[in-house]
Amino acid sequence: MRTPPKDRESDLDRAPKWEPRYAGSDRLKDKVAIVTGGDSGIGRAVAVLFAREGADIAIVYKSNKADAEETASLVGAEGRTAILVRADVGKTSAGRTIVDKVVSKLKRIDVLVNNAGEQHPADDIRDISPEQLQRTFATNIFGMFYLVQAALPHLKKGAAIINCTSVTMYQGSGGLLDYSATKGAITAFTRSLSENLIEKGIRVNAVAPGPIWTPLNPRGGAPAEKVESFGETTPMKRPGEPNEVAPSFLFLACDDSSYISGQVLHPNGGTVVNG
């Protein structure tokens, strides 16, 4: 009998480490950030770190309200405001729904973190149904288009967009064909959107995590044996933690990276890739 998917962070055999590892220094003071997929994993770590640095957070989640509420309470514990926005980012109307609520409640948008994603392992390309293929692209890349389109009128000079791509874009992944293809699209989107928006003073960058211990892999249906050895093929011989990835997003969101756009950071356990 197949083990039920572990949908919540608390369901995992070992809790991911989301806690910021240092005191804040107001690098995002009084800014407003949207974090898609902010209920758990990398999104949770980013939301809490941004809050520690002074930002109010819009946590966008698809269905896991319990994890989203937990993340909101963690943001509140940092002394900042969190709002929850339930939305399926892959739907064409989601971008407008998210932006309208954020602007209504928090009045502005300074940082957009496109982090939401899904994956469904398949060793044979013939096992990827048209429905799965379309769904993976809708969530992972179409949703970024929809949200940027909706947010752009509210993004002013100095705003930042950070997209989550993956090491699989650079290495490939025989068992994640559709997922890896979307990550290649995200990297191209990041570079092209940077060229498109740079004259408006809006910077666009990306983060390409390696194997990070989050609910994404067990939730996506990865076999138990692969989950057990997850991350061991990296030079560091272990998976990363969400709080080892979140600082890359913070760097790209704040003025520390004011001369950087169209680039990708690689928190991946020491794997050397080009680009």
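Next protein, fold it too.
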Amino acid sequence: MDLVVNGTRRSVDLDPRTTLLDALREHLGLTGAKKGCDHGQCGACTVLLDGRRVNSCLILAITLLGSSVTTIEGVDHPVQDKFLEHDGFQCGYCTPGQICSAVGMLDEVSKGWPSAVGDAELTDAEIRERMSGNLCRCGAYPNMIPAIREAAAQ
């Protein structure tokens, strides 16, 4: 099957049961998305699917015909620089998923999509709520929040 990943059409021979995460890591050599829980609970595998953030461990690759996938390897966004400026990571395992999720979240905010917090502006509480599907075992959240807020201002 053909997958469009980071703007490039790639042909892969996959078992129909292969998840997007396994296709990316094992068949395409894109190891940025991490296999954390393999159950969609931690967000370490977050990528952008047609611009929307998804847990790649929960999606079968075979369902993606005609879709475009962006992994951390294909992201070019101010949030990356802000994560570095604010030391928004410690071990770095969750960082690719956090950054992909932040990029998708900022797009959702720009489109006016509501959240459970419901703040009209991007407050710390709003960022925490919108990023709640991405876990960091090191606890680098205090540095991620200002990084995301500053990236949103750019």
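About the second fold: The chain has a mean pLDDT of 96.
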